[in-house]
């Protein structure tokens, strides 16, 4: 029964998450109603086995780790799309649908 409970938790977590963009093997996500733990606008970035949470619009790592080249790519993307990210953040904390954002090219 423990496995079923674990699976339900994983499903709920990903149900509450939306993928904003993907580029160079990096997946950028935002969770709905995710303003309780960090209390500031942020995104989640995943690349291979690395996960990091980046502040918006500063692009600083709040939590986690990632290799330097991927950190720089995420930070560049945040800089280019800060206004869109902040608009999505406002939608997400209210549980509303958010918009995809162009990948880094």
**Sheet with the most strands: spatial strand order:** 1-2-3-4-5
| Proportion in β-strands | 25-35%
Q: What is the straight-line distance between the termini?
A: 45 Å
Q: Please estimate the helix content.
A: 25-40%
What is the H-and-E element order? Answer: HEEEEEHH
| Helix-strand category | alpha+beta
Give the total of beta strands.
5
- State the helix count: 3
What's the gyration radius in Å? Answer: 14 Å
- Shape field: globular
Mean pLDDT: 86
Please give the domain count: 1
Q: What characterizes the major β-sheet?
A: 5 strands, antiparallel
Low-confidence stretches: 1-14
Description:
With 105 residues, the chain is of the alpha+beta class. It has one domain. It contains three helices and five strands; from the N terminus they run αβββββαα. The chain has a five-stranded antiparallel β-sheet with strand order 1-2-3-4-5. Strand 4 and strand 5 form a beta hairpin. The longest helix is centred in the first third of the chain and has 14 residues. 23% of the residues are buried. The N terminus is likely disordered.
Summarize the structure.
This protein is 37% helix and 28% strand. It is α+β, with helices and mostly antiparallel strands and 105 residues long.
Question: Keywords, please?
Answer:
single chain, 105 residues, alpha+beta, five-stranded antiparallel β-sheet, 3 helices, disordered N terminus
